[in-house]
Structures are given as C-alpha cells and as structure tokens.
Amino acid sequence: MKNIMGFIKENLAVGLLLFALFLGAGNIIFPPLLGQQAGENMIPAMIGFLITGVGLPLLAIVAVAKAGGDLQLLANRVGPIFGVVFTSIVYLAIGPFFAVPRTGSVSYEIGIAPFLPEAAANHWAPLLITSVLFYMLILYLALNPTKLVDRVGKILTPILLLVILVLAIKSFVTPMGNPGDAIGKYVGSPLSEGFIQGYLTMDVLGALVFGIVILQALRGMGMHDPKKQVKTTIFAGFVAAIGLAFVYISLGQIGNTSINVIGASDNGGIIIAKSADVLFGNIGSIILSVTILLACISTAVGLLSANAQYFNRLFPKVSYKTYIIIFTIFSLIITNFGLSTIINTSLPILLIIYPLAMVLMVLSLADNLFKGGRIVYILALIPTFLVSLYDGLKELNVKIPFYEDLLNTLPFHDQSLGWLIPAIVGAAIGIVIHKLSK
C-alpha cells in the first residue's frame, strides 16, 4: 500500500502535466456547444463525445508509450515514408498550423475581448497586441521543456482545476434552466454526432505527440528506465482522462441548461462566456478569462515543444531553439486571421487525418495478434484514407458524383463514419494474407 501511494504521489505531477497539455481552447468551447444543441439528448451525445475526447486519447497514450513515446516509430509500421509524412502532418496540424493559433485566438476572444468596448474588440489592433504578448510568454516557457512539470503540472494546472471546479459546482447546484430541444443531427443520432464532435478537440492527435514531451519531462526528473517510463506515462494518461471527463461533463452541463437564459448560439465560446456572467455576475467573466488563459498557455507550450523536438530530430542541423522561434512566429501570424477562419480551414484536414490516426492506433494495440504484419496496416489504412479523403474534399465543397454515390452505400456514411467498415475489412484481409504468407 505504501509503495502504491508513493508511486501515485511521485507521478501525479506528470499526470497533471498531461492533463494540462490536453486541456486547451477546443476542450473549453466545444462541450458547452454540444450541451446546448443536444438538449434532452445530452447523455448519449456526451457519451459519444467522451469516447473520442477521453477514451481514444487514453488508448493513444498507451499505444505511444509502448512504442517508445514516438509517433514516427508507430507510423513506421506502415512504412518509413508514411512514417515521416504522416507524423509531420500530425505535428504541424496540432502545432503551428491550427491548434496553437486556435489557443491564441480563443485566449483573446474569450479571455480579453469581453472586457473591451465592442468597437475595440472587433478591431485588428487589440488582437495583434494580445497575441504578441501571449506568444512572448509561450516562447519563454517553451525554451526549456524539462521544467514543464514544475511550471505547468505543479502550478498552472491546480489553479485551472480550481477555476473549473467553481464553475461546475455552481452549474450543478443552481442550474440556469432546463435543457432545450435537440437540434440537427443530435435529434436522430446524438451518440454518433457527439463522437464526431470529439474530433474537433484534436485530443487523439495530441495524445499521439505528447509522448515525447512526457518522456522529456521524465528524463529531466532522472527517470531513464524504459519500463518505468511506460508505466508512468500510462498512469499519467489515466489522470488526464479523469480530469478531461470531469471538465467535459461540467462544461456540457453548463451549456445544456443555458438556452432558456442566454438564448441559442452556434459558438461555444459565447455560450460559456454568457453562462459565466449569469452564474457569477461580473466576476464570472474574470473566472472564465483566467480559465481560458491558463488552459491555452499550457496547451500552446506543450504543442510547440513537441513540434520543435520532433523536427529538430528530423532535421538536426536546425536547433530546437530556432524551431521554437519559427513556430511561435508562424502561430502568431495565423492567430491574427481569427478563430472562425482557423476552425473552418482546419476541419477538412481533420476529417482526413483523424480516421487514419484512430485506425493506426487501434492496430498498434492489437499488433501482437498479427505479429506486426505490415500488410495489415496497409490494407486497413488505404480504404480508410480513400473514404476520409473524400469527407475532407466534401467539406471544401469539392464533389465527385460517382464516388459520392459509391460511398453512400457504406454503413454509417451519413454519420461520417463510412471509413469504419472498410478499415475493418481491410485489416481482416491483411491478417489472412499475412498468415498465408507465413
């Protein structure tokens, strides 16, 4: 018992670090929107959201930990070229291209803009000034990732949890009102719609790359035994999963009880901002801004650190510090295009790479069943890509009639899960071929 308690105490900070890396802009703004739009179907919708927002990221953490904390080693099971290309795309997507700029934009729109006059909030100058200050802080924190456990896990995360806890208790003790009617796909298929909405958090993609940050932090703590690193990383994954589930359910509850008081909205940031004001008055906006800023700072630091470490290893002639500076400046530029532009631009890419990441992750966990046969990965990922590619193109209003007719025959295609059966069939065929070739 004493050994168990010692293990928990020793590694809890690592779990809080991983939780803080996950909890970013999307994790704050999407659950309230789901809660409001799902209405009376909140429970099945939230279950679907928790599967992609908590369950699958936990499995991804386990998969990456067993692969040595390296997404590229995992992707290399398909082939070395795929390993480099896919890993680079994932890193850039959840790094300086989309996820990091989203943290900067959300920090401004929810954490700063509500305190400004309307005319000033809609002007480009405050966003630029705020984002410059935001990324200066991010740059400082990211230049020394071995101290992330102390700076984020032990300081920022407990404060962040306390702020969310206050909001959550208030929303459950004195809810704003009753749930409204479900709208859109939440009416007929709330579970699958919640599952798809979980894509927007990018948590599975984040889980695949956070392994390198966690390992760096563990080495900074003097832990160099690979088996102990895997055990600690898996423990950290469970801590992060529990924290994320608590946050998602709490924020979903706030959105679910808000519609009769603040009205309907298609922006989760607006829902949570107005709800905080209703629940706590003027201090509610301050509580919310602190929550958003802490969440976005910790996530941006983790993502930029992971990107810089990966590309420094891929192209070592460029230093870690140089990559951090380049990615920070690039994120600063993208941030100033605004939140709506960032989300609309990222969605097609997300629809393409998210299914690939999930299939790769599940196959890696079942790798022992087919002894790592490359043909299994290839035959599962090819049909997955062919379906998910069209989902991404369709989001860009690029339609191919005969191809669309073919995909419409696939089970679950209406729920944007048309890739599921082809992936399973492809993997099964790959297993048969692999066994016959032996």
UniProtKB/TrEMBL annotation:
Pfam families assigned: Branch_AA_trans
Functional note: Component of the transport system for branched-chain amino acids.
NCBIfam families: livcs
Family: Belongs to the branched chain amino acid transporter family.
Protein name: Branched-chain amino acid transport system carrier protein
Subcellular location: Cell membrane
Transmembrane stretches, start-end: 45-65, 77-99, 124-143, 155-176, 196-218, 230-251, 283-306, 318-339, 345-363, 375-393, 416-433
Entry superkingdom: Bacteria
Alphabetized UniProt keyword annotations: Amino-acid transport, Cell membrane, Membrane, Transmembrane, Transmembrane helix, Transport
Predominant subcellular localization, coarse grouping: membrane
